[in-house]
Amino acid sequence: MPDVQPLVNGFLSQLKKRKIEGSQATAKQTAEVLRSVISQQRLPHTNQAGALIDAVRAVGEQLIAANPVEIAVGNIVRRVLHIIREEDLSLATDAIAGLGISAGSDDEDDVEQDDHPVLSAAAVAAAARSTLRPPSLQTLLEDMPDSAAVPHTSSSGGESEGKSRSDKGSRGRKLKHDVIEAVNDLIQDISTCHEQIAEQAVEHIHHNEVILTLGSSRTVLEFLCAAKEKKRSFRVFVVEGAPRYQGHVLAKDLAARGLQATVITDSAVFAMISRVNMVIVGAHAVMANGGVIAPVGLNMVALAAQRHAVPFVVLAGSHKLCPLYPHNPEVLLNELRSPSELLDFGEFSDCLDSASGAGSLHVVNPAFDYVPPKLVSLFITDTGGHNPSYMYRLIADYYSADDLVVKGRTTAGS
Amino acid sequence: MEGRRFPRTVIGPKVRQVGFFAPAAPEPSSVEPDPVDSSSPPLLDSPVSNSLSPVMIPPPRHLSERTAAVPVPELGFRRQASGDFIHIGSYNPSVSLLGPLPAGSPSSRVGFGDGELSEESSTAGCFRRSSSGSFPGGGFDMSSLKHPENLVGDNFAMAGELEKPVGGPEKEEEVAKEALHDPLSCLELLKTKTKTTKVERRALQEAQRAAKAASKAEGGKVVAKSNRAAPAKYSKESLQRKGGPPAASPMSTDKKVSDHPFEKEKKKDMPPPRMQFDDKNRVEKAKRRAIVNQTEATNRVELFRHLPQYEYGNQLPDLQLKFFQLDSVHPAVLKVGSFYLAGDILGGNARCIAMLRAFQGAIKDYRTPCDKTLDRDLTAKISSYVSFFTQCRPLSISMGNAIRVLKSRIAKLPPSYSESEAKTTLCSDIDRFINEKIVLADKVIVGHAATKIRDGDIVLTYGSSCVVEMTLLHAFALGKQFRVVLVDSRPKIEGRSLLRRLVAKGLSCTYTHINAISYIMHEVTRVFLGASGVLSNGTVFSRVGTACVAMVAHAFRVPVLICCEAYKFHERVLLDSICSNELGDKEAVARVPGRMDLSSLDNWTSKDNMQILNLMYDATPSDYVSMIVTDYGMVPPTSVPAIVREYGREYSLI
């Protein structure tokens, strides 16, 4: 544990100072930090999963608090918790199955040899669970009180306690190993998600299309370029995105890759949207209700697109899917940046403190915008296209209901 | 973060108190609009107090307050403040921005220095005056004559600006030189030539009319086309008409036809079509005539081929170099044109006033050529100035309307008037137009709009509109407690100067950029916007971004009030912002001042598939607009065509 602390602290300070930009980079680093936390964690003989969960949750809580606006951190923490639970569950079911057939069948060297099926143990477990219990109201009703009533640590702990009697040492190492493999898988997923999203580009972009985009998203860039590589010729209007001017970078990259890029000012969005066939944007985070936390200005674009019946497509990797429902997201999930991006430093500094007199001056420079789900036509994630109303279900595949509140239980306990 | 936001019950969630609701006035009569009331005379200072109209607004509730308190203090402030900085984007009713023509104006940011300019223009003026004084025939503009021989006169005036006619350029040149040496002989020559020309022209006119009647009988399509094309050509091409056999050039015949009074009456109802810049032939033609050297921009945006897309930056020095060659352009006009080109005069009102003042100066120095009538020649001259202005920057709707009024005034001058009488009448007409349609209209609008600001309001405005600014200052002077949210956008960061002025006056302000509009709109209770023009389908044509602001306000159920003088109403219709617009400097978008870290767009012109679009205007659909505050009262956007109809005629009657 002490070995990990400097790593965690370094990441924490980076998050606090907003040194890490972009949810993909943040998600990846979070997963890496958590992986090292897991690998350093010493496991007790009993209740191993519970110990892992507690360790991850303790670190995750710090990470989330460091930058509550960077939702990807919380998403990854929850994903890792979910992975631990799934691995634990699959081991438990394997153990049950193994008890019936042969007790020593699933020792570790066996796992080492054919790691291919084990790599996706979480997926296997999820699949197994869903085949066991197909999603219906009945299973939901049966499921809910079970997980809600029994505290998870004790339930999984109870299970593992019961089973771990037989093979303590090997199972402890195996759980950790499986979890780390699954986290590696997750990191892999995060870094390749835009490829999977980009594969779907041809299905959505046709010839001579006019596309508008805002913000600088790697996913959007890859998406558009993938369509370009399939010999589709289209033009892209890039909104510059005023105080940060990420559109300039995106336009340059697009032009460098041979796409027809036109930079427009933010104010010209409404004027140009009537000639646009599709709005394709990246997101900062996607909430469970299908709302999008996005670079500032996107709500305006979405409203304009709705007015002109232009499809508004959001590209989001699965690490951006957040299992929480937003409340007052314009304020609570937002961040106000420095006024110096809007006004020159010192120009109005005498008015900026409102105590000085009647003529007070506030400068508002938010970083994010919230786009309500009714303005979004389609989400394209690495698993395919989805309606905003389906987001809650998609999210249920990645997170377990017990982890939704990472902070709550520990703060209540401590 | 949470505390910053107050509950939206400030305005009541869904009750929109717009229209004739007067929050400050306790009188019950003011709350509901009374249709009977509308027939009673409105504002005393309104120029239309005697006309009845279905769109007439009930009389103001607090007449005394409005007429008395209308922004005299603001004017004082503005006058005082204008010494310190330039009012870009806001005109200044009391300060003579362009009053005395060659005198130093506050806008000293033009390429050439102020004193220099005044010196130059005054010397040029002197030169003109002396030459025309000693030689009455030399000063007149012969542009309305069409014979190739008349290029003598044109050459005399333009010093070889034109391309030579096909006939014999050397000879013409010689004649021109001769004419310079011997004014009297030139005059003789011209006189004889003009006579023959007149005869010829009349014959030709008859022939053309007959031909036109015939073609009208068979189809009428061609005629309609040529008719439509006529006015634009007329205004653009009278400056330097290409010489050549008159029968071969359709535009000259068109011009004659449009000179005809009946045709003119008919045509006046129809707005002239704008020049379409994707028409190669016409662009070529216009280019040859152009005074201002415009180089076509590289990396043009495909969607906007029909609009002029020029490189910026090199026209102004170019125009200065030509200063002494441009005898056809009055120095006052040239000065204002260079201001347009440099972007030192911004805003519909300021541009319109500057233009009218320049015309005033030109009319004062105008002499009718001995063989012409004042109305025709002066109209042609004004048209030539207008085309010069158009080359400097496309006309705004306000300028177009003012030009129309001026031309109709010239056409309606009684023939019995002497030249000096006509000139003083026109000058006082221009004064009256500026005073009634702009200055007084603004006072009325400010009075109306200020009643819509209540205590505790959060008023949002976008960009920098002079009427909105006066409204805010007026409401502040009335002691209302409100906060102003200023939304700004690139590349013209107009709002910053407005912010400076408002903060200096002690108003509480919040400043943000247009992307954050949906963040800030939660707390806003009123949106006040200026407009460059209001079209007769209720579309508001205004600075780019206005539509975005209005759209977000509409989505958040915040009332949008457009402050616009009625002289900016136009009978054209517009559905989108693409067909008719103006493109600004692209470099202004690529460069972000003060941000050294942004270098992505440094060499964007070198990339073939990279374009930058800098739109200047956009069209706000009428359903986003709650009401339009004009000098005729507060009207819904659906009433714009009624106002255009009822009061459009009145322009020519004032």
**Mean pLDDT over the full residue set of chain A:** 78
Give me the side-by-side strand order of the main sheet of chain A: 3-2-1-4-7-10-11
Largest sheet of chain A: 7 strands, mixed
State the distance separating the first and last CA atoms of chain A: 20 Å
User: How many helices of chain B in DSSP terms?
Assistant: 23
Tell me the fraction of residues in β-strands of chain A, as a range.
5-15%
State the shape of chain B: globular
Tell me the structural class of chain A: alpha/beta
The coarse silhouette of chain A is globular
* Largest protein-protein interface: A-B, 60 and 67 residues
Please provide the count of β strands of chain A. Answer: 11
What distance separates the N and C termini of chain B?
56 Å
Elements of chain A, N to C (H/E): HHHHHHHHHHHEHEHEHEEEHEHHEEEEHH
Radius of gyration of chain B: 26 Å
The amount of helix of chain B comes to 40-55%
What class would the helix/strand composition of chain B place it in? Answer: alpha/beta
Which spans of chain B have pLDDT < 50 for at least 5 consecutive residues? 1-90, 92-196, 219-269
Q: What is the radius of gyration of chain A computed over CA atoms, rounded to a whole number of angstroms?
A: 24 Å
- Describe the strand arrangement of the main beta sheet of chain B, using strand numbers: 3-2-1-4-7-11-12
Pick out the low-confidence regions of chain A. Answer: 103-120, 144-166, 408-414
Helix content of chain A: 40-55%
Task: Report on this structure.
The complex is a heterodimer of chains A (414) and B (654). With 414 residues, chain A is α/β, with parallel strands linked by helices. Helix content of chain A is 55%, strand content 11%. In chain A, the strands form two sheets. In chain A, strands 3-2-1-4-7-10-11 form a seven-stranded mixed sheet. In chain A, strands 5-6-9 form a three-stranded antiparallel sheet, covered by helices on one side. In chain A, α1 runs parallel beside α3 and α10 crosses α12. The two termini of chain A are 20 Å apart. Chain B has 654 residues and is α/β, with parallel strands linked by helices. In chain B, the strands form two sheets. In chain B, strands 3-2-1-4-7-11-12 form a seven-stranded mixed sheet, sandwiched between helices. A four-stranded mixed sheet of chain B has the order 8-5-6-10. In chain B, β5 and β6 form a beta hairpin. The N terminus of chain B is likely disordered. At the A-B interface, α13, β3, α14, α15 and α16 of A face α18, β3, α19, α20 and β9 of B. β3 of chain A pairs parallel with β9 of chain B, so a sheet runs across the interface.
